[in-house]
Amino acid sequence: MQRYYEYRHVVAFEETNLVGNVYYVNYLRWQGRCREMFLRELAPQVIEDLRADLKLFTVQVDCEYFAELEAFDEISVRMRLVDLGQTQIEFAFDYLLLDPAGERLVARGRQRVACMRGPNGRTTPTRVPAPLAQALRPYAAPALVSSDV
């Protein structure tokens, strides 16, 4: 059973530096893009909630790099659920280079997100919305699948 959500991307020139490899901040952007496409595809009702007063704040992010990427490389960013708390979610991301010879892991990242509500400057933590928790369940580690969220 597939236990990750996949976002595919082709690296553009604008995502590279003068040396020709991908600038590190783009890996973090791709994490966000993967998360957004997940919401668009599998939890669209959460998008309406975001247009109201729900906020998803990234509170921690990291990425470890194993190999370089260049313009026109095709990659797969694979997102998995690591932790689903009452008000926070932690994701893991694998970045794989896709080519005819197969897949190669080029980076690995993590991201912790806090769910908040309220006006800017006075936001308070809120529970992870039920539609989001339900959409995430298929991508959870086996120990999380049986938890009551």
UniProtKB/TrEMBL annotation:
Matching InterPro entries: HotDog_dom_sf
Top-level division of the source organism's lineage: Bacteria
Name of one Pfam family that matches: 4HBT_2
Protein name: 4-hydroxybenzoyl-CoA thioesterase
CDD domains linked to this entry: 4HBT
